[in-house]
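Ops channel
N.P.: pipeline sanity check, posting one input/output pair.
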């Protein structure tokens, strides 16, 4: 899995993800990584898939 931050604002970030995981697996993985980061305990967040896979 590789990630690139495409755009950020005060309350939103667009992250481009390239992965062989399914959409649901990728979302779950990214949510878990964020929860374990220094921001995860302080911020409410959601993740959603947009665009066409491959």
């Amino acid at each position: 899995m590789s990630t690139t931050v495409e755009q950020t604002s005060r309350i939103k970030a667009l992250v481009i993800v390239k992965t062989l995981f399914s959409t649901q697996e990728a979302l779950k993985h990214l949510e878990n990584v964020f929860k374990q980061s220094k921001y995860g305990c302080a911020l409410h967040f959601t993740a959603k898939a947009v665009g066409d896979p491959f």
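N.P.: looks fine end to end. Residues 11 and 46 are 11 Å apart (CA to CA).
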